[in-house]
Amino acid sequence: MSNVLHRSSRTHKNKKDFRLEFGQERMSENHWQEKSCFRMKTDSILTVYINDRIYAPNREQADENGGIHRKTKFPQGVMVWLGVCYDGVTRPVIIENGTINHQRYVDEILPVILEDGQKLMGNEFTFQQDGAPAHKDHHTQTWCKDHFWDFWPKSRWPPNSPDLNPLDYSIWYELCEQMNWGQKTLIYQIRAGVKKIRTEVVRRSVDCWTNRVYRMLQKRCEYVF
Fold first, then answer.
1. From CA 197, how far away is CA 187, in angstroms rounded?
2. What are phi and psi of 86, to 5 degrees?
3. What is the average pLDDT across 156-182?
């Protein structure tokens, strides 16, 4: 599997401040969540867009499906939300149509994260989300405050820090490996792939999180790869 990383390895000065403050705080039990966009191209090659990254079975297909800015005209795409903690992953929430505003996020995604998080860890866990607009909206922040035992508000998560989220640096890769890339039934393959995510991969990705924070601080808040 090949991927293309377009993001610069240098962080902006004010983002470093957020990352420094974040890294110096100690975390208890935590539950991460993140979104990804999966698209099935017209040539039946599955590509996965995660922020600025593109995943494909090999380098050539990555180039053909966007790595060198080549696009097919009518991609079939879905957006996927997934949560992860040491004991496993949540059910995927698959959005087939439209975009996610705060209301849809509160109605369709957060209840799944809350329910599955409680099944995986009990009631007392800390919920973490990134700085997407739907996450930062005051309605979302209020919902999280009212329903989660603990959550990190929008001021606590450093921006543009996929290197500190197990989903970004590990779990999405694992999901791609577990999916049948030749199948056209995209949604079915996503759901089936999530069920095949290996427990040892999940736990290893969470176990190395503390080390990543330590390495980030050693590197003066630069990205950790």
1. 16
2. -60, -35
3. 81
- Amino acid identity for residue 179 in this structure: M
Cβ partners under 8 Å of residue 224, min gap 6 = 163, 164, 212, 215, 216
pLDDT of 139: 96
Q: Please provide the distance, in angstroms rounded to a whole number, between the alpha carbons at the two ends of the chain.
A: 17
Residues 40-46, mean pLDDT to the nearest whole number: 35
Give the pair of three-digit tokens for residue 179: 């999916």
Q: What is the mean pLDDT of residues 70-92?
A: 74
Q: Set out the domains of the chain in order of their start, with CATH numbers.
A: 2-6+23-218 (3.30.420.10)
For the cut 50, the answer to whether the pLDDT of residue 2 exceeds it is no
Higher pLDDT pick, 178 / 1: 178
Q: Which two tokens stand for residue 33?
A: 């969540």
Neighbours of 38 (CB within 10 A): 26
Separation between Cα atoms, residue 6 and residue 100, nearest integer Å: 24
Dist CA 4 CA 68 (whole Å): 9
DSSP per residue over 119-135, as a string?
HHH-S--EEE----HHH
**Model confidence, pTM:** 0.67
* Residue 134 in tokens: 């739907």
Rounded CA gap, 111 and 172, in Å? Answer: 22
- H or E element, residue 42: none
Amino acid letter, residue 171: I
Q: Give strand ranges (E) for 86-146.
A: 88-89, 93-95, 126-128
In this structure, the number of other CB atoms found within 10 A of the CB of residue 101 comes to 14
